[in-house]
Automatic annotation (TrEMBL):
Protein name (record): DUF1349 domain-containing protein
Gene3D superfamilies to which the protein is assigned, alphabetical: 2.60.120.200
InterPro entries per UniProt: ConA-like_dom_sf, DUF1349
Superkingdom: Bacteria
Family annotation (Pfam families): DUF1349 (PF07081)
Length: 201
């Protein structure tokens, strides 16, 4: 099944557990089931310990890009999250999350290279925030924003070989809870990178 959103120049396909993905009125919604996540514990045994969560992904066009969305999460349990997701291989992926971590809405990131790291950036007010995943050259970057205008730098990193295709899109998780629903609206895709990661633009 391919899902085509008018805001994106590429189709999306579901991966992992059934996310009940739906698009209506400019908003994409998805749902994670109980104890669904996409994470390889740093002390775990590689992919033998990986869990899984619903993802809706498409192949990013060549070159620089920005994927933007305003995310709203129905927080109910610790680590419930709506996520912009990047995948370059079975052992290499990254997440930019609006996450209940563990009792406050927080901007969090995970980069997985065999095992996952996990870092909290800052606490936010409410259940909605803007997220941005970008690529400039061979580097990726995560930003977050309260209004979609002024962006706070969260992280920059390399992932995979330069020639590896990247799949990008959306994920919903509920690692400790009974399930979580998230929506993504104001979705936008720009075929340009970022000149300055830290100037707020």
């Amino acid at each position: 099944m391919t899902v085509n959103l008018p805001e994106l120049p590429f189709g999306l396909r579901p991966f992992g557990p059934d996310g009940q993905w739906a698009y209506e009125g400019g908003a994409l919604t998805g749902r994670a089931g109980a104890r669904q996540d996409r994470f390889v514990p740093p002390g775990g045994d590689g992919l033998a310990s990986v869990s899984d969560a619903p993802r809706l992904l498409g192949t990013a066009p060549d070159g620089d890009f920005q994927l933007i969305a305003r995310v709203k999460v129905g927080f109910a349990a610790a680590f419930d999250a709506g996520v912009l997701y990047l995948h370059v291989g079975e052992r290499e992926w990254a997440k930019l999350c609006l996450e209940f971590s563990p009792a406050d809405p927080t901007i969090c990131t995970v980069v997985t290279r065999g095992h996952s790291d996990d870092a909290n950036s800052f606490v936010v007010d409410g259940d909605s925030f803007w997220l941005r995943l970008s690529r400039t050259g061979s580097a990726y970057a995560f930003h977050a924003s309260a209004d979609g205008e002024k962006w706070t730098f969260v992280r920059t990193f390399a992932l995979g070989a330069a020639e590896q295709p990247a799949a990008i899109g959306f994920l919903v998780q509920s690692p400790t809870g009974k399930g979580c629903r998230a929506s993504f609206d104001r979705i936008a895709f720009r075929r340009s990178g970022l000149d300055d990661l830290r100037d707020g633009s």
